[in-house]
Design a protein that fits this description.
The chain is α+β, with helices and mostly antiparallel strands. It is built from seven helices and 22 strands. The protein has helices at 21-35, 108-145, 150-153, 157-191, 223-267, 278-304, 489-498; strands at 39-42, 48-53, 55-71, 74-77, 83-88, 95-96, 101-105, 306-308, 313-317, 325-326, 335-339, 343-350, 362-366, 373-381, 386-387, 393-401, 412-429, 434-436, 439-446, 449-460, 464-469, 476-481.
Length: 519
């Protein structure tokens, strides 16, 4: 930037020091004088001056904001079913572990439903055991009655056991073949993705059509891989069908053997009751499976009546109390838990400063004397403004606090955002710069004489100001005339309000131009 470049922001060199005009303006004279080699000078009977040396230094421009410490992540968990709150064990500010109970619902009806479901399972199992016992008794009676005719009827106890073993083995074979067939169908679908060979209506890839895939390299979707996968799927289905036929044949043989045994037992007057077939036993097993599903659902509902924390953290909100209805439209939500881990500082920036704040800018956070200075970075700048009752307009800014921090949630903090930084810059004490409108100048001491030198300023800090042009390191500038009256607060504030804004140099490096877009 040159002296003729227009100012990027109509802000005063002193604009960010209005909150402490005297504290920054006057105190900076004393501090910077020591840092830059302040001295006294006079020329004969001329007034005496306090001087400072122009140096090369790093100049930063800070923006100090009030903020509130908040968790970076939080989770709200509520009841998954409607009910009445029985107990609330969580309290705001309490540290909880993952899985720790937070509240419970009244579980009288849920416990009753779980008991009934458990009884249904027990009854179904008892029915299966009874039918199996009846089947065994019938087989034994038939074996005793037809022992002499075993060779003719083929219904001896050994024959019955053999047929039962064949049915069991056939069941297992069907299960295994069905599993392999399902896997082969899934593989065919994957291999034929994007190919002209598409799955048929039964879930098996079609092999009755020509394959026109554009690739034949064996990759997913290629004609070669698709054809192989479809062939494997058809083979698996054929094997499964054969196994199912074998099972049906084994069940039919068992039914015939049992029927012969029962017929013989009935002829001898030793029938053990109603006929028990393979279908009867299968129905008994299906009843057990159905009742097991009901029991699992009842137990899940009972478990859902206890609200547990999904993460380890700090409870920051409990919206209900014992006796309150939850889980229905119009009721309150769930318990909010702030996860242990990163924290953020939420601040508000005025509309006059928001254009200077961008994500990625370096910041520091101080939350009480015990926390020390914590590193941070601006992670988000809100686009929606908030207007206070006094008409002040602010925008939300979030600063992520780096490293592990365990600051109290909701505690007050001070955030300092580094708006600009100039390294190895020609710098003078900020109090040495005189501003008139949009022009800036310093008084240079040389050879016993004082002359006014116009300068172009860049980054303006509370102690140093960057000088882009007009000065060189080693020169001496006037901080104050020792015979002039000290400025009072009224005159100083009036001068600061009249001061024009400095021209800001363009950024260099990877973040150059970052200020060009308002977030």
């Amino acid at each position: 930037m040159t002296a003729s470049s227009p100012a990027r922001r109509p802000r005063s060199v002193w604009g960010r020091r209005r909150k402490a005009a005297l504290g920054v303006g006057l105190v900076a004279v004393t501090v910077t004088a020591g840092l830059t080699g302040a001295r006294f000078a006079s020329a004969g009977g001329a007034p005496a001056y306090r001087l400072a040396t122009v140096v090369t230094a790093t100049v930063t421009e800070p923006l100090v904001l009030g903020a509130t410490v908040e968790p970076a992540s939080e989770t709200t968990v509520g009841f998954s079913r409607a009910g009445t709150v029985a107990t609330v064990s969580a309290t705001v500010g309490e540290h909880v572990a993952a899985g720790q109970p937070l509240a419970t619902l009244v579980t009288t009806k849920l416990a009753t439903a779980e008991e009934r479901a458990a009884d249904a399972v027990a009854q179904a199992r008892l029915r299966l055991a009874d039918d199996q016992a009846r089947e065994a008794a019938a087989a034994a009676a038939a074996a005793a009655a037809a022992a002499a005719e075993a060779s003719a009827t083929g219904s001896s106890p050994a024959a019955i056991q053999l047929d039962q073993g064949r049915v069991t083995a056939a069941h297992r074979q069907v299960d295994a073949d069905l599993t392999r067939a399902q896997a082969a169908v899934r593989a065919a679908r994957s291999a034929c993705a994007g190919s002209a060979a598409t799955p048929s209506g039964t879930g098996t890839p079609s092999v009755g059509k020509s394959v026109r895939a554009s690739r034949s390299d064996g990759s997913p979707g290629s004609s070669g891989a698709c054809a192989k996968a479809v062939s494997a799927a058809l083979t698996a289905e054929t094997v499964t069908s054969a196994a199912q036929g074998a099972l049906a044949s084994a069940q039919s043989t068992l039914d015939k053997t049992l029927a012969q045994a029962r017929a013989l037992a009935s002829a001898e007057g030793r029938s053990s009751g109603g006929a028990v077939t393979a279908a009867t036993l299968a129905a008994d097993q299906a009843a057990i499976d159905t009742s097991q599903v009901g029991l699992s659902e009842a137990r899940a509902a009972l478990a859902a009546a206890t609200l547990r924390s999904p993460v380890a953290g700090t409870v920051i909100s409990v919206p209900f109390a014992a006796g309150q209805r939850v889980g229905v439209p119009g009721t309150t939500g769930g318990v909010t838990v702030a996860g242990l881990g990163p924290q953020v500082a939420d601040a508000a920036v005025s509309d006059t400063e928001i254009s200077a704040v961008h994500p990625g800018e370096v910041a520091s956070v101080v939350a009480g004397a015990s926390s020390g200075v914590l590193a941070g970075v601006v992670t988000s700048v809100g686009a929606l403004a908030t207007t206070a009752g006094n008409g002040a307009v602010t925008y939300p800014v979030t600063v992520s606090i780096g490293g592990p921090s365990h600051l109290p949630i909701g505690s007050a903090a001070q955030v300092t955002i580094t708006l600009a930084r100039a390294s190895s810059a020609v710098a003078v004490p900020t109090s040495a710069v005189r501003t008139n409108g949009s022009r800036h100048a310093v008084e240079v001491w040389s050879g016993g004489q004082v002359r006014t030198a116009p300068v172009v300023v860049g980054v303006v800090g509370p102690i140093f100001t960057q000088v882009i042009s007009g000065l060189r390191p080693g020169q001496h500038v006037v901080l104050a005339r020792l015979d002039a009256p000290l400025p009072n607060s009224t005159s100083t504030l009036r001068q600061l309000r009249r001061a024009g804004g400095p021209a800001r140099p363009a950024r260099s490096g990877p973040r150059a131009g970052a200020r060009g877009t308002k977030r």
